[in-house]
Specification:
The chain has 132 residues and is mainly α. It has one domain. It is 61% helix and 6% strand. The protein has 6 helices and 2 strands; from the N terminus they run H-H-H-E-E-H-H-H. Helix 5 crosses helix 6. The relative contact order is 0.14.
Length: 132
């Protein structure tokens, strides 16, 4: 995968939806790190070298969670898919080596959902105040 193709998968939801008008905040870095951990935990398996077998990181076989994120050409569509992932609290499974990260990833998913919900309420309130 080329660098440019991976940008959208770790890009912040707000930036994908707002485009060039998005202001970068530290929470956007946290969101990007979350996506990296999420993709590592759901797409890859770590195998310890054993006698006669190579170890290393291997891509899981079969249907991968969030594969559509990599196939989406439109950043607004990708941003909407990521927002839906948070707001709908979509479930996912992690590969065995990442099982200790699962609860942490779920808690972060919930925290982001609360943050996006609060931002949506704030933005709605701001628009209503401007109309007065």
């Amino acid at each position: 995968m080329r660098y440019r193709e991976f940008i959208g998968q770790v890009a912040l939801t707000h930036g994908l939806l707002k485009g060039a008008d998005a202001i970068h905040l530290y929470r956007h870095d946290v969101e990007s790190i979350f996506y990296i951990m999420l993709i590592l935990a759901t797409h890859y398996d770590i195998q310890v070298p054993e006698e006669g077998k190579d170890g290393g990181i291997k891509v899981q076989k079969g249907d991968l969670y969030f594969q559509d994120w990599f196939e989406t050409q439109n950043f607004k569509t990708l941003g909407r898919a990521k927002l839906d992932f948070f707001m709908d609290l979509e479930t996912f499974e992690v590969s065995p080596p990442f099982k200790d990260f699962y609860n942490w990833l779920q808690k972060l998913q919930g925290s982001f959902a609360l943050g996006f919900q609060a931002k949506g309420q704030h933005d709605l309130h701001a628009r209503l105040m401007l109309q007065q």
